[in-house]
Amino acid sequence: MPTVSHSSRFNFSTRRRQARIQHLLAQGLTAGLLALAFPQPGWSLLAWVALVPAGIAAVRTRSWRRLFFTAALVSAVWWGLMLRWMWPVTGPGVGVLAVYLGLNVGLALLTAGALVQKLRWPMVAALPLCWVAVEALRSVAPAGGFAWFTLAHSQAAWADGSVGRVAQTADLVGQHTVGLVVAVVNGALIDLATRRSATARLSLGVAGLLLAGALGYGQWRLTQATGTTGPGPVVAVVQTSVPHSNKLYPTVEGMTTDFNDLVALHGEAVAEIGERFGPDAAARAAVVWPETVVPAPLNPAARAALRADAADLTQTEGFRAYHGLRSQMAELVPQIVASGGVRTFVGASFRGADGRPRHNAVYALDAGGAYAAAPYFKQHLVPVGEYVPGPGFVKGLVLKLSPYGEDHDYTIDPGTEPVVFDLPGPDGRTLRAATPICYEDAVAGVCRDMVYGGERGHGDAPKRVDLLLNLTNDGWYPGLGQRRQQLGLATLRCIENRVPMARSVNTGISGFIDSSGRPHGLLESYDPAAAACTSGVSVAELATDSRVSPYGRIGGWPWVLFVLGAIGAGTFAGLFGRPLARHRIA
Question: Contact, 320 vs 311, CB < 8 A?
């Protein structure tokens, strides 16, 4: 009776049309599994098999062009759908980004296939090298990179109380350590499907040992945390519900309502601190407001300019009323903080007396309402949202395609370094905090620099801060997908640096993350019955962590070697590898 050998499994048709369909089906199946692995729905187990169909196509293809373009096409569609929450902000921008990211996927599979077919590498080695190298590169470049939807992200926690064991390996060499483990398992399954039994067993053995090691390390790190964490500050996060339209097209009535709601939420946060932790808790507590929640600059020169605008009789009554309200808000912020008697971190803008330069800033006010330190200026700006990269003609084209129009002001300047804020802790200790703004909690290098860079906070202690306070405005985006995705990315920052984080987010999701990447105290971000985002406050005592992560000590430079290794191996395969073995591929 005839038998089928391993070498003939999953061979595609030699007919061009059928081969195209098979390639598209393989890439489509990978795309579907990956989509389900990320929040939402966040079925993370699917990531461990998601790359198998596309990987088989890379092993069996006889047309590099077909492999590359089918992978790039399907992936571009996938990216466009996964980033659908960006459509209202910049539809054309999503299209350009999706094409670029799709080409990244095509390049990863093309290189992995070349290593297998031309150098006879097993996929358990080729796929992790190529896939993770491309993820590492796109996470930092161009324009600061785009680190969303890496394999590591699929394993990050995003639900209240959940925690991932494999995700704990992110503290070794950063988040891509997690993606490497997932890619190795996918590669071993591809070898099982396409190679002879001896090689397949070796690949499965390697993947099994790595996975067992990752799970064991994760369990050890989670158990270890019970002995390395101690009481920290009490933090209350405020979640406002300001629609993005209120910021784009402000009215005096809308601004008044939004500001009054903020004042009420601040009072609620202060009251809850006292109710839960006693009247003395205010001395070691902090309240955090969302990013740019105050629609006025708070630095002295800008406040003076606002007062002048409000008193300028040469302007229209509407102009004076608008700037008068903004001036009133800026002057009220210290009074609001002083009335509550709790240190407060406020998101607002920063302007010079002439209106330039402008920064996205965090201001720290002490319990008496005085500005306690110089503000922190956001360092990692969002392309298109806060600046337009490239030469002047590119800026003009982008503005024409954006929903904001050609007159939209893209003059936000980046900050140059983190600012460390003092925060009263228990037993009279002084703790220190840094304040990543918005997507900075998704950028590994920014958060690591905040925690481990520069001058140390406590003598010779390796960490210069004890916790991160993230101020974000997610009112730009509809639905829950983006909010849960960003929360998952923030959990990886906490694991990488072994610090807790509090997140105050306009329209949610606000809450806390411990140093093991476990979210807790999360606020719902959307009320289906009311078809609107929700507001509220959440209060928790954060636990500081004395552990110093390997990633904190050495950073992410090993991934530079990874990228160079992938480039070198791919180039060598293309120049000196054996020809395609047509009898075993499609």
Answer: yes
